Amino acid sequence: MTRLVEQDEVGSQDFTRKIVIVLAAHLASWEALNTVAHLSAYLGNKMRERFESGSAFVTKDGKPHPRNSQFPIILLSAKPAQIKRLIEVARDAGLLYHAFIREMLETSDDEEIVQILSNKLDEEVECLGIGMFGKKEELNTLTKKFSLWK
Questions:
Q1: Quick one: DSSP state of residue 32?
Q2: What does pTM read for this prediction?
Q3: Residue 3 within any structural domain of the chain
Q4: For residue 9, is it within any domain?
Q5: Which CATH number do you get for residue 30?
Q6: Segment 18-28 mean pLDDT
Q7: Which end of the chain, N or C, is more open, meaning fewer C-beta atoms within 10 Å of its C-beta?
Q8: Choice between 144 and 68, residue whose per-residue pLDDT is larger
Q9: pLDDT of amino acid 3
Q10: Residue 140 φ/ψ, nearest 5 degrees
Q11: What is the pLDDT of residue 2?
Q12: Quick check: 55 and 67 in contact, CB under 8 A?
């Protein structure tokens, strides 16, 4: 039995902001996928803006397809030192960001990460990627030197 879904009220899409994820270029595929998943989940959870412009896209026969982010998500690659610098800039600029570090990939135990990091300087922490949400122009300026992830 097919249940027809009504189109919901759709808000206007915001084209002024976007999500950018910058990964360390040397990551193995599984490391890159894990890093992107965690960065995306964090940003989506912390965003105060409406994530989607409506609840679902509906086919002619009434089948719903949940909407995705109304914001573009761009995936770039960079050298680790460039990512470290980008993290500093994001912190200073007050951007919504999340940095994913090697320890987060190696253990899912937060207490273990707390212990490991308490014995390291920030410069010793390997950053695998950063995800940022903000104004499109600002993020374009910060990431203009990076290439698309391949």
A1: H
A2: 0.87
A3: no
A4: no
A5: 3.40.1490.10
A6: 96
A7: N
A8: 144
A9: 46
A10: -60, -40
A11: 45
A12: yes
